[in-house]
Amino acid sequence: MPTFPPLQNDTFLRALLRQPVDYTPLWLMRQAGRYLPEYRATRARAGSFLGLAKSPDFATEVTLQPLDRYALDAAILFSDILTVPDAMGLGLYFVDGEGPRFERPLRDEAQVRALAVPDMDSLQYVFDAVTQIRTGLAGRVPLIGFSGSPWTLACYMVEGGGSDDFRTVKSMLYNRPDLMRHILETNAATVAAYLNAQIDAGAQAVMIFDTWGGALADGVYQEYSLKYIRDVIAALQTEKDGQRIPSIVFTKGGGLWLAEIADSGADAVGLDWTVNLGAARAAVGGKVALQGNLDPTVLFAQPEQIRREVARVLETFGAHTPGSGHVFNLGHGISQFTPPEAVSILVDAVHEFSRPLHAGANRGN
Description:
Pathway: Porphyrin-containing compound metabolism; protoporphyrin-IX biosynthesis; coproporphyrinogen-III from 5-aminolevulinate: step 4/4. Keywords: Cytoplasm, Decarboxylase, Lyase, Porphyrin biosynthesis. It is found in: Cytoplasm. By secondary structure, this protein is of the alpha/beta class. It has helices at about 10-15, 35-45, 50-55, 55-70, 85-90, 110-115, 125-135, 150-160, 165-175, 175-200, 220-235, 260, 275-285, 305-315, 340-365, and strands spanning about 75, 90-95, 100, 145-150, 205-210, 240, 245, 245-250, 270, 290, 325. It contains 15 helices and 11 strands. Helix 2 (about 35-45) runs antiparallel to helix 4 (about 55-70) and helix 14 (about 305-315) packs parallel to helix 15. The relative contact order is 0.14.
């Protein structure tokens, strides 16, 4: 079993567990990405996106890049949610300008019935990257592992890539719910095993990205996405080496189902920018921590406007009280066109403006 240096900054983990902290911690979805010139340079050396994602050395390098540039409170594994269906034999590849594609999408009953949980050895490069990143962090901040949700993975697996309307996967859902349930059950078992292996390799928190949950109708979301997210969470190990391993669920477009997501068993719920943080806190803040939710396009504004929007998000959540928890993040991934200096302004503003909001909760403990 790997051994790692002691953690120096546990603010992110404490916030997820709704424990007192001195300030609101932050990290950014896609914080290691194309907006950073150093990432683009490493990506060019790797030769392809998959070359980058499947090399523990390159994955470690790009994961650490934003931490070397900004005072972020967590690192997140550099990988892709589609490594899982790739390990299931669907044949992942990328087309420039078009995104991910699968050579063998799930289009008929025989393909679906043949789908099975893959041997986790086929994803060893991910677990090696987790251990290498955790070692490279040297205890600076915690490391987040992640996976796509069973439903979101199914969208790519059936559609064969991205989609504007999810017509193929939703047609299967309505016409052959038995086939869809087989895919989702297999995905849930795979995601749970995948996240547990990341935890064993060194991940200190895990996040489930339900990127396409919001494409489902009310009622259908609960049956075909949230149910399987619950199954994953129920199978996760929640402690490693005496430390709690918190979990986060993020359903983009899921504000309608906030209370139900908060009952999923997760420690925290990620929110997109359409949700009012104060209302979300009032609804579920005593049960889970909340993560989010600045509109990523704010980072294209002038510096003072960025600072104002950061203050507005923090003030919308409000002053912290014992048992409240907030992790600052964007409402979705950072744009590849974001000026790197805008992120510096964001990070500094969150740390500066959030400290007074924590004073009361800290005096109360």
